């Protein structure tokens, strides 16, 4: 089976947030009932400012949409953390 591989540039951190940290923060709202409003609070526990999280969240969402390999990698990390 063929698996989409992300473009190398597509894994570069956005506002200091790499894909693994993005996945960990995204999953970090589980204890809050997946309340997306809690994302800046969870991000802060990872040392990411609200402004940087906003930039990273928009950037990673766009990359996941644009590059199937990034989406696949995100899902792998999200399930593993």
Main attributes of the structure:
single chain; 81 residues; mainly alpha; 4 helices; 0% strand; globular
What does the model show?
The chain is mainly α and 81 residues long. 57% of the residues lie in helices and 0% in strands. It has four helices and no strands. The mean pLDDT is 94.
Main sheet attributes: strand count, strand direction, barrel closure:
none
Mean pLDDT: 94
Total DSSP E strands: 0
- Tally of contiguous helical segments: 4
Uncertain runs are none
Please bin the fraction of helical residues.
55-70%
Listing every helix as H and every strand as E from the N terminus to the C terminus, the arrangement reads HHHH
Q: What global shape is seen?
A: globular
Structural class: mainly alpha
Task: Tell me the distance between the termini.
Answer: 25 Å
Rg over CA atoms, rounded to whole Å, is: 12 Å
Strand coverage percent: under 5%
Give a short synopsis of this structure.
With 81 residues, the protein is an all-alpha fold. The chain has helices at 19-27, 39-45, 50-66, 68-80.
Fold topology:
Elements: H1 19-27, H2 39-45, H3 50-66, H4 68-80
Helix pairs in contact: 1-4, 3-4
